[in-house]
Amino acid sequence: MDLYLPIANLSVNALVIVALGLGVGLLSGMFGVGGGFLTTPLLIFYGIPPTVAAASAASQVTGASVSGVFAHLRRGGVDVHMGVVMVVGGMLGSFAGAWLFAWLQARGAIDAVIAVLYVLMLGSIGGLMLVETVQALRARAAGVTIRARKRRHHPLVAMLPLRWRFYRSGLYISPLAPLLLGFATGILTMLLGVGGGFILVPAMLYLLGMGTQVVVGTSLFQILFVTAWATMVHATTTKAVDIVLAALLLVGSVVGAQLGARFAMKTRPEYLRLALAIIVLMVAVRMLLGLAWRPDEIYSVELM
């Protein structure tokens, strides 16, 4: 069943897009990530223009984050005070990202920039995850217990002026730290269509020193509002949001997230992280090949 995407200006198989959303939602439910960092490159592989893929993926991440936020709110796993500060930073970052997006688009460089950023980002994150997971699996096989890292905010955070108490997280730090973190995430959301959870979660753990019991919920809280805001900014400035594409993705991702969450409960976390690291590295390699591989014939003629 083919559908025409008005903003992307091409026809796609609706079932393929729904299946793609289903697969990303499945990964989201299994690994606890928003899935936007995989949605955009997969859409690009399918033939969607990178600008439309990045803008539409942000709206899909918004919808997929709603149920997760409410679930964490019910069990007290969200530091709303911290989340609001990061949301403000994310909204400011969205404006900066929109300006950067339009500037690169006017110079015809946005598609290449999106691809290069994804290769660098997915390659580094996938590599770090793979190394950490292999170490954990080796330690488990050897019967060695890995000591948990002591929770403490980074010295750079301690140097920032002003101090606020974030009671739910048990922190007394400068609000500038989460504000700047949200700002950076807002820029990434505009440029790449990602929620930023795969960056937010480790940054909140290792830079801000937040406890694991509130990290995921607070990250989803920030992602929900910032991706919604980024979608609105994209729709009014870059005009790159394809609502038909976003709706098809959302249908699949909502179902996939529920299935992935059930599957995750029956699988060891180490194996889940290993699988995610391999998937992320495979996507990074595929994007790198798309940038570097030169076909024998750059142009081809297809007889209809």
TrEMBL record:
Belongs to the 4-toluene sulfonate uptake permease (TSUP) (TC 2.A.102) family. It is a multi-pass membrane protein. PANTHER family: MEMBRANE TRANSPORTER PROTEIN MJ0441-RELATED, MEMBRANE TRANSPORTER PROTEIN YTNM-RELATED. It comes from the Bacteria. It is found in: Cell membrane; Membrane. The lineage of its organism: Bacteria, Pseudomonadati, Pseudomonadota, Alphaproteobacteria, Sphingomonadales. Signal peptide: none annotated. The keyword Cell membrane applies. The keyword Membrane applies. This is Probable membrane transporter protein. The chain crosses the membrane at residues 12-38, 44-71, 83-106, 112-131, 171-199, 205-231, 243-265, 271-289. InterPro entries: TM_pro_TauE-like, TSUP/Inactive_protease-like. Keywords: Cell membrane, Membrane, Transmembrane, Transmembrane helix.
